[in-house]
Amino acid sequence: MESIINTIGVSNIIGIMIAINIILLITVIILITKTSKLNKKYQQFIKKLGNSESIEEDLENYMYRVERAEKQNGEITNTIKQINKNLEKCIQKIGIVR
Predict the structure, then answer these.
(1) What average pLDDT does range 76-95 have in this prediction?
(2) Distances (CA, A) of 36 to 22, 43, 79
(3) Distance (Å, rounded) from C-alpha 79 to C-alpha 71?
(4) Is it the case that residue 90 has pLDDT exceeding 70?
(5) 61 Cβ partners below 8 Å, 6+ apart?
(6) Does an H or E element contain 98, and which?
(7) What is the pTM of this model?
(8) SS3 labels along 11-47
C-alpha cells in the first residue's frame, strides 16, 4: 500500500480524491433534483386521484367510471350500426329531370 502511495504521490492522491468528491457532489445534486421532480409529480397525482380515505377507494371509483364509459361506448356503437342499417334502406341520390 505504501509503495502505491509513494509511486502515485500524495499530491496526486489528493487530486484524485478531490475529483471523486466533485463527481459525487454532482451526482447528489442530480439525484436531489430528480427526487424533487418525482415528488412534485406524485403530489399532483394524489391531488387528481381524490380526497377519500384510501387510494383503494379512489381506484375502485375510477374503475367503476371506466366500466360505465365502456358500456356507454358499446351502446353508442350499436346505435350507430343500427342507424347505418336504416340508412341503407333510405332512398338516395334522387334528382329532378326537366
Answers:
(1) 88
(2) 21, 11, 49
(3) 12
(4) yes
(5) 50, 52
(6) none
(7) 0.47
(8) HHHHHHHHHHHHHHHHHHHHHHHHHHHHHHHHHHHHH
Q: Could you read off the pLDDT of 66-79 as tens digits, one per residue?
A: 999 999 999 999 99
Write down how long the chain is: 98
Cell 329531370 locates to: 97
Please give the C-alpha separations between residue 53 and each of 49, 57, 73, in angstroms, as whole numbers.
11, 7, 31
Q: CA–CA separation, 46 vs 39, rounded Å? A: 11
- Decide if 55 contacts 49 (C-beta within 8 A): yes
Task: Between 5 and 68, name the one with better pLDDT.
Answer: 68
Contact 13, 5 (CB under 8 A): yes
Q: Which residue has cell 371506466? A: 66
- 35-82: pLDDT as tens digits: 999 999 988 877 776 666 777 887 888 899 999 999 999 999 999 999
